[in-house]
Amino acid sequence: MLLETIAQPLLTYIRRYVELSKQDVEAISDAYQIRTYKKGDYFIKQGDRIDEIAFVVEGVMRVYRESKGKEITLFLRDENSFVTSITGYSGYHLSPYSVQALEDATLLVMSSEQRQALFEQSVAYQRFSMMVLERTVQDMEVRIDSQIADNAARRYLKLLQDHPSLIQRVPQYHLASYLGVTPESLSRLRKYL
């Protein structure tokens, strides 16, 4: 069982969506375990069979895919966000993505088996999970739409507005991959904005 002080960021995040009873807090604390990762370590490697999801307490995680010798960054996740490969986690398929720490990171990790047990113990956590799933799908739709409809400058400005700390914390070549441009194009873009 996690100490409530260690679980506090997760509990605070969940309470933004649902009320938690003392029993809910205990069940959630029992379901998650703390793990630390050094910069460059992997939570998930592309092709792994996974059954875990993590809440980022500290650090930045990059979700990416290798294709034709190139790394394509799909998502950047920092504090107070969840990270996994949904395809791998939900369907017990091999993960098409890698999840790597871009900084030293502290994660609260839960297996799918622990999630199932938590669902049986906490209706509040079930509701919370549905809300997070809906938000995740919305975020994915916004990201896809932005890649289709927005130019690189608009995508950069949106990232700067929504997640300003990532601009300082994530290496430029990963930011460029996330924005769908070359590092050189991102450098020129930053100079003119």
TrEMBL record:
Pfam families: cNMP_binding
SUPFAM superfamilies linked to this entry: cAMP-binding domain-like
A GO MF label: kinase activity
Domain of life of the native organism: Bacteria
Residues making up the signal peptide according to the UniProt record: none
UniProt keywords, alphabetically: Kinase, Transferase
Domain Cyclic nucleotide-binding: from-to ranges: 16-136
Protein name per its UniProtKB record: cAMP-binding domain of CRP or a regulatory subunit of cAMP-dependent protein kinases
Lineage, top ranks: Bacteria, Pseudomonadati, Bacteroidota, Cytophagia, Cytophagales
InterPro entries reported in the protein's UniProt record: cNMP-bd_dom (IPR000595), cNMP-bd_dom_sf (IPR018490), RmlC-like_jellyroll (IPR014710)
